[in-house]
Amino acid sequence: MTTTTSHATTAAVDRGEPAAGADTRAAIAPLLFGFFPAQVLHVGATLGLADLVAGGPMTSAQLAEATGTDEPSLYRVLRALACFGILDEPRAGTFAAGPHAPGLMADHPASLQHLVRLFAGPEVWRSWGELDVSVRTGEPSWDRVTGAPSFEYMRTHPELQAVFNRAMAEGTRNATPGIVEVGGFHRFSWVIDVGGGDGTLLAAVLAAHPQLRGTLLDTEDGLAGAEATLAGAGVADRATAVAGDFFASVPDGPDAYLIKSVIHDWDDERAAAILRTVRAAMPADGVLLVVEPVMPPAPAPTTDVLMMVMSDLNMLVCTGGKERTEAEFRTLLADAGFDLVSVAPVTGPTNYSVLEAVPAR
Ligand SMILES: C[S@@+](CC[C@H](N)C(=O)[O-])C[C@H]1O[C@@H](n2cnc3c(N)ncnc32)[C@H](O)[C@@H]1O
After folding, report:
1. How many angstroms does the Cα of residue 26 sit away from the middle of ligand 1?
2. Do 262 and 246 touch, CB atoms closer than 8 A?
3. Strands (E), 25-115
4. 259-301 pLDDT, tens digit each
5. Which residues lie closer than 8 Å to 83 by C-beta, 6 or more apart?
6. 19, 184, 225, 273: which one has the fewest Cβ atoms less than 10 Å from its Cβ?
C-alpha cells in the first residue's frame, strides 16, 4: 500500500501536480468535520446538561427525563460531551461534571454557554450554511435566511436578543483585565462606552478607577442586563445607562469615548457614520478608544489570526461588517475626522487591540 501511494505521489509530481504534504489529510479532516462538535455543544448548552449534573452524577435515563429527550439518542450526545471533557462518565451510562463543565454552565464566571447558543444556534448556523451566497453577492446571508438585518431581527426576537446580550458579556469578560491595563483610563474623569451592551466592560473600567464616572449607551434592548451588571460590580452610583441610537447622536460631556466590538459589525460607510456621530459629540481634547481585533496585513496562520479570519467571515455572513487592518482603521478614522495615534495589543488571552484616536488637527 505504502509503495503504491509513493508511486502515485511520484507520478503526480512528475505531472506537475502539487505534492500533498504527509499531513494533508490530518490537516483537512478536522476542519471538515469541525461542525459536528459545534452542534454537540449546542445541544449540551440548550438542554443545560452541565447545570443538571452540577449537583451530582445522573444516569442518561434521569437526564433524558429531566430534558424530555429520547434516552438512547441523548446517551450518544452525553458520550460525545464526555469525549470533550464537559462531562465525565465514571460508570457506563452515568454522567458527572467533567473538567470543562463550567464552560456550559449558565451562570459560571467561565461560562461560554450563551456564546455556544448564539454561534451554533439556528440563525448563525443557517447564515454560515449560505457562505457561498455571501461570497457571490457580498451581502450578509443572515438577512436572507431570517428576513431582516441582525440587530433589527433580534429586536423582534427577544429570546435571541437575550442570548446575544449574554454571549457578548461572556466574550468581553475575558478581555476586560487587559483592556483596563492598556487603556490608560487614569487620564480621564468621564468615560462613555458606546454600544457598551450590558456594561461588562464599563463596570470593570469603573471598578479599577474610582475617580471615573461612566455612561453606557446602547439600544433599549441592548441595555437589558445593564442595571444588574453595574450594581453587581458596585459601580452603579458612578454609572448611567442611556438608551439611544449611535447613528443619530451620542451624549456630549465625557473626555473619553470607548467603543468595543461595534465597528467590526458594520461596513465602511456605516462604521464611519458611527464614528462621525462620536466625533460630533466629542470635545477637541477628547480621546477615542476603539477596541477591536486588528488584522495583520499578510496573516501568518497562528491561532489568534485564525480566530480573526473566522470572525471576519462571521461578519460577512451575519452583519455585513468586517475585521480591519491597522491601515484600514487609519483610513476609516481619518474619514470620520480622527487621527489614529497608537495601537496597543491588549494583554492576556485575547486578540483585541486598543486603537487610540484624537480629533484630527
Ligand atoms: C457586538 S455587540 C458589542 C457589545 C459590547 N460593546 C461588547 O464588546 O461586549 C454590539 C452592540 O451594539 C449595539 N447596537 C447595535 N445597533 C445600535 C445602535 N443603532 N445604537 C446603539 N447601539 C447599537 C448592540 O445592541 C450591541 O450591544
Report:
1. 39
2. yes
3. 58-59, 87-91, 94-97
4. 999 999 999 999 999 999 999 999 999 999 999 999 998 867 7
5. none
6. 19
Residue to mutate, 168, 180, 290, 351, ligand 1, most ligand atoms under 8 Å from C-beta: 168
Which tens digits make up the pLDDT trace of 14-46? 666 777 777 999 999 999 999 999 999 999 999
Residue found under cell 478607577:
209
Distance in angstroms (rounded) separating the CA atoms of residues 328 and 309: 15
Cell of 253: 460631556
pTM, to two decimals: 0.93
Q: Which residues of the chain have pLDDT under 50?
A: 1-6
Ligand 1 centroid distance, CA of 262 (Å):
6
Known active-site residue 264: yes
Write down the pLDDT at residue 185: 98
For the domain made up of 35-104, give the CATH fold: Arc Repressor Mutant, subunit A (1.10.10)
Which protein residue's CA is at the shortest distance from atom 20 of ligand 1?
245
Domain spanning 168-359, CATH class: alpha beta
Contact 63, 49 (CB under 8 A): yes
291 and 202 in contact (C-beta within 8 Å)? no
Report the alpha-carbon distance of residue 279 to residue 258 in Å, rounded: 12
Domain edges within the chain: 35-104, 117-165, 168-359
Q: Which single residue is written with the C-alpha cell 438585518?
A: 149
d(CA 255, CA 289): 11
